[in-house]
Amino acid sequence: MKLEAKPSPFSKALAHENDPLADHLLRVARRAEALVTGCDAEIRQAAILAGLFHDSGKATNYFQDYLAGRTKKSQLTSHSAVSATLFWALSSALKFDNLSTAYRIRLSAFLAILRHHGYLRAPWHEELQNLRLDAHSTSTISDQLSMIDLAGIAKWVAEKINGYGLMLEKKLPDQVDEVLNLLHKGSTIAPPLRDAYTELSASVNFLTAFGALLSEDRLDAALIGNEMQRVMLPTRLVEDFVYKRFGECHNDLDSLRRDISDKVCEQILANYDQSHFTLTAPTGSGKTLAALRMALHLRSELASSTWKQPRIIYCLPFTSIIDQTHQVFKDVLEMQGFSGQDVLLKHHHLTEAFYRTKDDNEYPAEGAGQLLTESWQSEIVVTTFHQLLNSFLSPENRNIKRTSQIAGAIVLLDEVQAVPLEYWDSISALFEAVAERTGARFILLTATQPLIYEPDRSIELLPDHERYFRTLSRTRLHCKHNELISEEVLASQVVTAIKAIPEQSALIVLNRRATVGRLYKMLEKQIDHVFALSTYLTPSDRKVRIRQIHERLVAGKPCVVVSTQLVEAGVDLSFPIIFRDLSPLDCIIQSAGRCNRHGEWQTGNVHLVNLKSKQGCQWHKVYDAPLVEATTDVLGENPVYEEHEFISLAKRYFRACKNRQQQNRVDELLIHGKFDELPTRFQLIREGLPTKSLFVIRNDEDRALWARYLELIDQPAMIREQYFRAFKANFYERVIQVFGTNEEGIRPLNVGPETYDSMLGFVGFPKEKEDAGAVIL
Hints:
Layout: E1 14-16, E2 19-20, H1 21-35, H2 41-53, H3 61-67, H4 80-90, E3 94-95, H5 99-114, H6 124-137, H7 140-146, H8 150-160, E4 167-168, H9 176-184, H10 200-222, H11 237-246, H12 252-270, E5 276-280, H13 287-306, E6 312-316, H14 322-335, E7 344-347, E8 355-356, E9 362-363, H15 365-374, E10 380-384, H16 385-389, H17 397-400, H18 403-406, E11 410-414, H19 424-438, E12 441-446, E13 459-460, H20 465-471, E14 475-485, H21 487-500, E15 506-509, H22 513-524, E16 530-533, H23 539-554, E17 560-563, E18 577-581, H24 585-592, E19 604-613, E20 616-617, H25 625-635, E21 640-642, H26 646-660, H27 667-671, H28 678-681, E22 691-697, H29 700-711, H30 717-725, H31 728-732, E23 735-739, E24 746-750, E25 756-757, E26 761-762
Parallel strand pairs: 5-12, 5-13, 6-10, 6-11, 7-10, 11-12, 14-19, 15-17, 15-18, 16-17, 18-19, 22-24
Antiparallel strand pairs: 1-2, 3-4, 8-9, 14-21, 19-20, 22-23, 25-26
């Protein structure tokens, strides 16, 4: 069918099938505005304008014919660039407080519209200049403009704009030449356009408004105009759970945990109007439940004063420890009859995106489920540092759409010492800007509080925490690290300690997976019930192994566990004796947190050793030298430290680390709009030695899963992603990474005596012949 020679009326244009364009634009603008209620006024205005104009370019006859199936996709059917052009021209008629404000808001909305189907690349003014060059050198935009009912759009904007508190100060352009002239007007290299963005807070405003557009545009389309309903949660969920589950306090440790929880809750409510907090408490002191309790009380207090229920976002450093925290929260909520992903959501890169509400409405992953999950449509979200920080420190839209959910939220970061030291200043600056512009609260939780916040920049929720460290002196640290010892000597020390007391259990924490294997083999010849734990085991096997160990410990049966650092955070195991190879002090203290954790023994003992390797020490190439140097300097020559001294050691250690470590100011990339540099400059998990990814096959179920994976190779990318999503989490439960020549993709590894051991996991590649090569989806 031949394209009409004149534009069809704007009032008849569709955004999607059976969805009038004007209605979609109004809904998205209203939803985006609601999402950033309480944020800085510039965020609100940019979000509204981006919502009103983001799909305005769909009004071309070209797009309408494509939507109706009368023509194929082409440059002329694209809509982002022409939508951004229309916005830039028409927004010149709006009235703003001053020129700087006008340019910041207009550039925010402009770039959000331009990139709402792509990803961020260059700074705001450069993107405007690039669009001007494209419009000048090609006829695409002018051709598209000629097939838009500009008079109809101008009339519609004039009618609707006042409803959002925005005003016009001159006539809106309604001719192609007028629009193009306004696009080219002014120089992008001259102030104030070039200097509209010179502060981090301005960049946070842009990213929050952009996130609101991304989230609400996609949700409006996926839910066909419907909206997710918020869920009201009782304030005293945790108190009721603790009473029903545990009853009255049974010992001094129970009393201390409840005392800490009470103090933290009182402190947060006394300072509810503040934005930055720390919670420093000993390991095993009930921080998780105390944190959820005070977050629910703070949420209730903020809702009563702002009429908006803030989301609770609980962040952890590793996916491997999310399950435990998520289960605790799930138990609390389900005891009171609350279930569904709209109440409690677990999100990381392997999350199954199936989404069910408390009212049993279901959204499968291949439908709206993934979007609802990735955009954190839940009252309580349990996620990773990676997902939180990449919301602002990533150029990808799939991450940025969460910024508007962080706005006004209560954000808790547990085990925050795991954040690499080089990013401390950037993250502190980012949190301050987000809190200032959106009203978010940030709470950093740990037993070893790093200096992300300097003491005068935050409120400590347990001001007398040193008293609790003294009270909870369950563990003694024996410093034997000044002497290098061999693995054989360590094995002898472990055997001696185990045999000294009948039915003794112990944990040995090592820095290298290969050392775990060698020490395990030495110990199993001399003592019984030895277990190995490392990432040479598949995630599925690790979960089974940790459960087996936990069951033995609870039953009072002896076990000796040889592990890498994976037990240091979030694993609820407790041993009377621990041996720890030399590492940074915060890691040592985290390992000590697995010793006499619940006060089962009179005193737990942690022995710090220093294993030698061919190159020197085994911590080399695992940890940065400045961190270990700071550790040895702080520990000095003192042979023994009590647990109550750990907090003062940690403070001295983190100060020494910060003095040694140069800061990587990735926040400056945001200030200058250098979004394309973020992926290489900001990496929470740095790339180490080259690795291979292996899919471990041991039975018919594994073979069937690998076969499903292979079937996707020749499918188009979108189909591959959709179908892989259905079994992705299950698939990666069988994947390990091992050192080897760096290669993309995943290769199969059939279980056998020379490849994968039931106790140790990966032991080597097959010697007879190589398995199939790596498969890349």
